[in-house]
From TrEMBL:
Protein name: Trafficking protein particle complex subunit
Domain of life: Eukaryota
Alphabetical UniProt keywords: Endoplasmic reticulum, ER-Golgi transport, Golgi apparatus, Transport
Gene Ontology biological-process annotations: endoplasmic reticulum to Golgi vesicle-mediated transport
Function statement: Core component of the TRAPP complexes which has a function of guanine nucleotide exchange factor activity for Rab1 GTPase. Plays a role in vesicular transport from endoplasmic reticulum to Golgi and autophagy. May play a role in dendrite postsynaptic membrane trafficking.
A Gene Ontology cellular-component term: endoplasmic reticulum
Phylogenetic lineage: Eukaryota, Metazoa, Ecdysozoa, Nematoda, Enoplea
Family membership: Belongs to the TRAPP small subunits family. TRAPPC4 subfamily.
Length: 220
């Protein structure tokens, strides 16, 4: 069962490592006979839907093609800025046309923000627990994915985002923690709570993910 992301969050809520194995998002084509009924804004230099939903396209989706051609090939028609693109889409003379939408991969800034938010939600979960010494958020389940969290005694958080049918990943995350201890903490050039830049750690995380996806186990 696929594991889409692995995140490591330090004690202050900062993202210090991420591994991405998310599937490429499928493009959705919508045909418009008149001006689009989405509200759009420029986010990370991409024309992004911020309000509205239609045909499987909703908030967070970006325009990647117009009439089958990538935006990068249409700058002579739509212009190179977001304002000029919206002016083109607002002109009734350019219709009918088809737009291709796709949900982009998480940017580095988005990963940092989401990690900080989860750190806060985890603390809220501990505070809301009616039982003392709560373990906090360990599993979040949606209709499309499951998020597992393993927190160490020192407050480090190891997260995985996986397929919704994936069973408990405690052993998997503990294995990632072991790699962190072996290849990051024992590295004399690594500073605690700082981003992890270690090829041995990267390769062992990838091997562990691939082994789990293929065999359902985390050890050889």
């Amino acid at each position: 069962m696929p594991i889409y992301y692995v995140f490591i969050i330090n004690r202050a809520g900062g993202l210090i490592y991420d591994y991405s194995n998310a599937p490429k998002c499928v493009e959705i084509e919508l045909r418009f006979e008149s001006a689009i009924d989405f509200k759009m804004e420029s986010i990370d230099s991409r024309p992004t839907v911020v309000l509205g939903e239609r045909g499987g396209v909703g908030i967070g989706y970006t325009v990647v093609k117009i009439n089958g051609k990538p935006l990068s090939e249409l700058t002579d028609i739509t212009g190179s800025s977001f304002a000029s693109l919206m002016q083109f889409l607002g002109n009734e003379e350019n219709y009918p046309l088809s737009l291709h939408f796709a949900r982009p991969a998480l940017s580095t800034n988005e990963k940092i923000i989401l990690s900080s938010m989860f750190h806060s939600f985890y603390a809220i979960g501990v505070q809301l627990s009616p039982v003392a010494a709560s373990s906090g958020i360990r599993v979040l389940e949606t209709d499309t994915f499951r998020l597992h969290c393993f927190q160490t005694l020192t407050g480090m958080k190891f997260l995985s985002v996986s397929d919704v049918n994936t069973p408990n990943l405690d052993h998997f995350l503990q294995r990632i923690y072991e790699h962190y201890v072996d290849y990051a903490l024992k590295n004399p050039f690594y500073s605690l709570d700082m981003p992890i830049r270690c090829e041995l750690f990267d390769s062992n995380v990838i091997q562990t993910v691939e082994r789990y996806e293929k065999f359902g186990v985390v050890s050889q």
